[in-house]
UniProtKB/TrEMBL annotation:
Domain Mannosylglycerate hydrolase MGH1-like glycoside hydrolase, first and last residues per copy: 264-561
Pfam families cross-referenced by the UniProt entry: MGH1-like_GH
First and last residue of the signal peptide: 1-28
Gene3D superfamilies from the UniProt entry: 1.50.10.10, Immunoglobulins
GO biological process: carbohydrate metabolic process
Protein name: Esterase
Keywords: Signal
UniProt cross-references to InterPro entries, sorted A to Z: 6-hairpin_glycosidase_sf, 6hp_glycosidase-like_sf, Ig-like_fold, Ig_E-set, MGH1-like_GH
Length: 982
């Protein structure tokens, strides 16, 4: 199955709700089914699960009826264990036309596709009378007539809110309630927009006494807050599950599950959701969920010597993912955002218990990440971008074949996460009387903030680079993401001047801000070309802090519109149209978002936080409550036009009940936000910070708004046809460096291969991460200043928009020392195996198979380094423990380099992530490098164990490598390479 785009750990139960099995006739009497094993229709419409079994109907025919939502759905026919796969053509995908017969080949091959424009029932019919060539026919069933239902019938009042669409049409959301005066209302909510998933065009929900409610004079605004509250309660579960854990069986946990299609707890989703709003409203459940994402070692596991006894225990869990999880991905530190918010909301006694546990887990994680993922040269942490974890969505295409290069890049969002973890750990250590640790973490945090601002800030763009290019390049790239920019502002990494620039410069489309910019060509909608409500909410937080009215208004509009028309707080939306699924018949491979869930946890947290923190201005602090509403002139005119006051009822914080009332001034023309004139607590004047000790059991906070302040108005707007890959909003494909060589004079030269870029493209050349030539044409280029070990990379740039590509894979001209495992200088307890000669090119050269057990040894030496300089040591390997987007079994080892006298000259973690698996060829790749400045002479290297996420107890029930069969940190080793660089 070609599912490398998907993170199957999260996908296992994700889409089951999209494909509903319909009633089927019984098997014909006396007609035995001809197939010995059951067959299933499995595809994108049912999460590649087994919900849709083909039922034998007699006379050699199997059928199943499935209700399928719009989309271009990949599918196959196969057994439950995939021991058989039936496709139309084993050599190429076929798009199946309804009502047409197709002979199937009972052998594995690429997926077939069914394009569905409108939700409908489809019958899949398989005729197996000729078992060697079964016949498939897919038929669209006519929808049975459904009696029209008016969910608003009999209700006293109906509010209708129209929204203009990207194509000049109008979609309308309607709301009603049978009793507007009820203390707890029930709402009916309908939408004219075609929904993402099968189901009615309306829903209903009821306010609950355990959740705050709003009375604003605007039924729609009140209803949408109630919707978010109801979805928070739906996500509050007694047990969680995922097909890859615990055999798919339920796991008891009073936790927050991640959404309608995600029934597990994921570290980053939970943590951002908690920070945005959930921790304030349900801190106890947030703490349960955060504790679920902590783990110690498995029984019997002895940590690597480098992971000392002080910092080897309880730590944060990095979920399954790219290259086999941590430390390819290191944004497990996002846990700190949720923990900090929970600590502010917990009563004192509960806070003390969780604070101690949080410091233990954070401390262990920070110390180990310092060993495994900290680059001392740049002062930054390596690792994948936070949440942007589908490699082809936001990385260069060549990265898919070189996950070690993804691992060595530095991401803005992830580094800001490390900054948050360090500042929180410093605070907790100081509170708990650990002055030395507090000082150390504070110093690390200060240095990291400085490094982010030095290494990732792009003055010409007025924004931070989302990520650097990987090793042998390292330049900050002109790629941008809204989460990273916003978190930099929210955490204080960005100062006031930089914050203002970011808010003014980050591009917004007609429907809001995309999560990345510019967009990736030839890539479907998911992170690429998408808005995610939780990221929008962080943009709103940043806009309120920076006083940017235009950016805040755009965020308010995005969040309210998305929930209104979709009847839920969705996972994501296409950014130029605002659609939950943008159908593109001309380019069906680009349709998306490819996955989308209702009541996505961080979207729910985002909406609740928007209302409580940004509209009503209430947030918790360690000492009490901060009061700082950010109500804009537009929000006053459009959302609260019918009222002079808005009220938030039944907000309970640390056991104190609060009623928050905002007195609104007269609506004004123009743009700006309203100044807070006065705040009272139970009738007595107070400031914008209210101490916990002043709060009784029941409290009323009244906020009177005054003059309209202009604030910041600057915003960058872009627009394009959502069905085109316009240069205005897309970046070009990355080019290639080819034919790199030195000439007789020692000059380095190469060809810039343009990768099908149009004529208005120019190219920028980087040597060792520094720009050395700008806006040159494709073709040959010569460097007359090339050093002994120069490394080159090229980026493409559209001349008109200025949008840039990712960098090409870097190429180096320095000397290279390659040593195969068959070399006499290699010593290991495992003997080389595998073919040599002509067969080695196809099936892999001799190697140390499955090297990496705790007792395994590997050393190489003496290695003669001919010239002093900077050298990079890498291992040539293959890791086929899992696919490149899955698992917990990325190779993580400790490499030590000693000189002839036995002195350690360099040591550290090297990563050997999962690599592509090809049945016809074993693609060999190189590990992340260990950098060393060496003198000419002899050296010896030694490889020993470190650890990966499979060593943690929390992964002991994982179904794949590193799970139920024990920890997995093994790879096939082919050799060692030393590369001379600058």
């Amino acid at each position: 199955m070609n599912l490398t785009r998907m993170n199957l750990t999260r996908l296992s139960l994700a889409l089951a709700a999209l494909a509903l099995p319909l009633a089927a006739p019984a098997q014909a009497a006396g007609d035995a089914a001809p197939l010995a094993k059951d067959l299933f229709v499995r595809g994108g419409f049912n999460g590649w699960g087994t919900d849709n079994q083909l039922v034998y109907k007699g006379k050699g025919v199997y059928e199943v009826e499935i209700l399928i939502s719009p989309g271009n759905h990949a599918f196959k026919v196969g057994h439950k264990d995939w021991s058989a796969e039936w496709v139309v053509n084993p050599d190429a995908s076929v798009t199946v036309a309804p009502g047409t017969d197709y002979k199937m080949d009972p052998h594995p091959g690429p997926e077939d596709y069914l394009f569905v424009k409108k939700t409908a029932a489809y019958k899949f019919r398989i005729d197996v009378n000729d078992a060697k060539a079964p016949v498939l026919r897919v038929v669209r069933l006519e929808n049975a007539p459904v009696a029209a239902t008016d969910p608003h019938a009999g209700h006293a009042g109906v509010a209708a809110v129209p929204y203009r669409t990207f194509d000049g049409q109008t979609e309308t959301a309607r709301y009603s309630t049978p009793d507007a005066a009820a203390k707890l209302r029930t709402y009916a909510h309908s939408s004219t927009m075609q929904l993402r998933d099968p189901g009615p065009q309306h829903t209903s929900y009821t306010e609950n006494a355990a959740v705050p409610n709003v009375r604003s004079g605007n039924l729609a605004f009140d209803a949408l807050f109630a919707l978010a509250g109801a979805e928070m309660r739906q996500n509050a579960v007694r047990e969680i599950r995922d097909g890859n854990y615990n055999g798919g069986a339920a796991i008891a946990c009073d936790c927050f599950e991640t959404g309608e299609k995600w029934h597990y707890v994921w570290t980053r989703d939970l943590s951002y959701a908690a920070h945005l709003g959930l921790a304030m409203l349900d801190p106890a459940r947030v703490v349960n969920s955060l504790n679920f994402k902590l783990s110690g070692w498995r029984p019997g596991i002895t940590p690597a010597a480098q992971v000392g006894s002080t910092y080897g225990g309880l730590q944060l869990v990095q979920d399954t993912g790219s290259g086999g999880s941590w430390p390819v991905s290191t944004d497990r530190v996002s846990w700190a955002f949720g923990a900090e918010a929970a600590l502010k909301a917990l009563p004192a006694s509960e806070r003390a218990v969780f604070a101690a546990r949080a410091l233990t887990a954070l401390g262990n994680t920070l110390e180990n990440d310092r060993l495994a993922a900290f680059d001392r040269a740049s002062g930054l942490y390596t690792g994948e971008q936070s949440f942007l974890d589908w490699r082809d969505q936001s990385y260069a295409a060549w990265i898919m074949n070189d996950i070690a290069s993804l691992a060595s890049s530095k991401a803005l969002s992830t580094n800001v996460g490390h900054y948050k973890a360090l500042t929180l750990a410093a605070t907790l250590a100081a509170e708990q009387g650990m002055a030395a640790r507090a000082k150390k973490y504070a110093a690390w945090a200060a240095a990291l903030k400085k490094a982010i601002n030095k290494g990732l800030w792009l003055e010409d763009a007025g924004m931070y680079s989302s990520l650097s290019a990987p090793h042998f390049d390292g330049a900050p790239m002109h790629k941008f993401d809204w989460l990273g920019q916003s978190l930099a502002i929210v955490t204080g990494v960005a100062d006031g001047a930089r914050a203002r620039k970011i808010l003014a410069r980050y591009p917004h489309g007609p429907m809001g801000a995309p999560v990345i910019y510019p967009q990736q060509p030839g890539v479907p909608v998911y992170h690429n070309r998408a808005m995610w409500p939780f990221v929008t909410a962080y943009g709103l937080k940043a806009a309120a802090l920076g006083g940017n009215v235009s950016v805040a208004d755009a965020a308010y509009d995005t969040l309210m519109r998305g929930a209104a028309l979709n009847l839920s707080n969705m996972e994501n939306l296409e950014w130029l149209s605002g659609q939950p699924l943008l159908l593109d018949e001309k380019n069906p491979a680009l349709i998306g978002p490819v996955i989308n869930s209702k009541r996505q946890l961080w979207s729910v947290g985002a909406y609740l936080g928007m209302v409580v923190e940004n509209v009503f201005g209430i947030s918790t602090t360690p000492g009490g409550i901060a009061v700082k509403p950010f109500i804009t002139a537009r929000l006053r005119r459009e959302a609260f036009a019918q009222s002079d006051a808005i009220t938030l009822n039944n907000l309970v914080l640390r056991g104190r009940a609060l009623t928050v009332r905002v007195l609104l001034p007269k609506a004004a023309a123009g743009e700006g936000y309203y100044k807070v004139d006065a705040v009272t607590l139970n009738g007595a004047p107070v400031g914008p910070a209210i101490d916990w000790r002043r709060l009784g059991a029941d409290n009323t906070i009244e906020i009177r708004l005054g003059a309209l302040l202009p604030g910041e108005q600057a915003i960058t707007r872009v627009k394009a046809d959502p069905y085109s890959e316009a240069d205005a909003v897309f970046g070009p494909p990355e080019p290639r460096v080819s034919k790199l060589a030195r000439d007789a004079a020692g000059h380095a030269g190469f060809d810039i291969a343009p990768s099908k870029n149009p004529g208005n493209t120019v190219y920028n050349i980087y040597r060792d991460g520094k720009l050395v030539a700008a806006k040159v044409a494709a073709g040959a280029w010569t460097d007359r200043r090339a050093g002994a070990g120069a490394c080159y990379a090229v980026e493409a740039q559209f001349a008109d928009s200025g949008n840039r590509s990712h960098h090409s894979a870097p190429q180096c001209v320095g000397r290279s020392i390659d040593i195969a495992v068959t070399d006499a200088r290699v010593a290991s307890n495992i003997a080389p195996s595998g073919p040599s000669g002509p067969k080695a090119a196809r099936f892999g050269a001799p190697h140390l198979k499955d090297w990496g057990g705790l007792a395994d040894t590997f050393a190489v030496g003496p290695i003669e380094v001919p010239e002093a300089g900077q050298w990079q040591v890498q291992l040539r390997y293959h890791n086929g423990a899992n696919q490149i987007n899955l698992g917990i079994s990325g190779g993580v080892k400790w490499l030590t380099l000693r000189d002839a006298a036995g002195r350690v000259v360099a040591q550290g973690v090297v990563q050997l992530p999962h690599a592509r698996i090809d049945k016809a060829n074993t693609p060999l790749v190189y590990s992340t490098p260990l950098a060393a400045r060496l003198e000419a002479g002899a050296y010896r290297l030694q490889l020993s164990d470190f650890y990966n996420m499979s060593y943690l107890e929390s992964n002991s029930t994982f179904s794949a490598a590193g799970g139920v069969d024990g920890a997995s940190n093994r790879v096939d080793l082919y050799g060692v390479r030393l590369t001379q660089t600058q």
